[in-house]
Amino acid sequence: MPDEEGRPVASVPVAVRCGSIPGRRAGKPRRDARTPTPVITTTARGAQPAMFTRIDHVGIAVHDLEKSISWYETTFGLTVASREVNEEQGVREAMLFVADSPAGGSYVQLLEPTRQDSPVGKFLARNGEGVHHIGYGVDDVENALASIGAQGVRLVDQRPRHGSMGASIAFLHPKDTGGVLTELVQAAKR
């Protein structure tokens, strides 16, 4: 749909794009079939072009990496793209390939703690197995950190660090990202 000046603008329902509507209790927004879904456009809000290029991966905390890999291979037909041990983070991981796109691949990242006091170990003790974080692809992780930090979002990492498959990564604080631990991923050059 075009804006007032005829430029193409993507529109997304407010309930999807913004997460919640001020003044409403948590849960599904009530919709009346006669009322059109309100939309927010990028030009209406003066937003910059999208920073994220893709959903790079969904990180899932597991108790048993080998058993979980087998389940994802058997159930969904996914294949292991890489395996790593990150001693600094106290985690063993496997990246399972989901799909490729012009912007890069997408994966399921299975994370098994190597020690109970690691971030993933603490997460498992508190929450059990499940989604730990989401990783979004970016073209330049340093620029993304600077831009997001300038907007007041707390950064877990002040500068990028080494991530899976040679990527450069950084995390954003979940208290400032809707309760979701968010990872920025600049994939290694292919």
Tag the structure with descriptive keywords.
190 residues, alpha+beta, 2,3-Dihydroxybiphenyl 1,2-Dioxygenase, domain 1, 8-stranded mixed β-sheet, two-stranded antiparallel sheet, 10 strands
If you had to describe this structure to a student in words, what would you say it looks like?
The protein has helices at residues 14-17, 42-45, 65-76, 119-127, 141-150, and strands spanning 11-13, 39-41, 54-61, 79-86, 91-99, 106-113, 130-137, 161-162, 168-172, 182-186. It is of the alpha+beta class. It has two domains: 11-45, no CATH class; 54-186, Roll (2,3-Dihydroxybiphenyl 1,2-Dioxygenase, domain 1), CATH 3.10.180.10. The chain has an eight-stranded mixed sheet with strand order 4-5-6-3-7-10-9-8. Mean pLDDT is 82; it is low at 7-44.
Q: Look at the structure and give the mean pLDDT.
A: 82
CATH superfamily of the largest domain: 2,3-Dihydroxybiphenyl 1,2-Dioxygenase, domain 1
Name of the level-1 CATH class of the largest domain = Alpha Beta
Q: Main β-sheet: number of strands, strand sense, barrel status?
A: 8 strands, mixed
Rounded radius of gyration (Å): 19 Å
Coarse shape: globular
CATH topology of the largest domain: 2,3-Dihydroxybiphenyl 1,2-Dioxygenase, domain 1
Query: How many structural units, i.e. domains?
Result: 2
- Please give the alpha-carbon distance between the first and last residues: 36 Å
How much of the sequence lies in strands comes to 25-35%
Counting DSSP E segments of at least 2 residues, the number of strands comes to 10
Q: Which structural class should the secondary elements be placed in? A: alpha+beta
Low-confidence stretches: 7-44
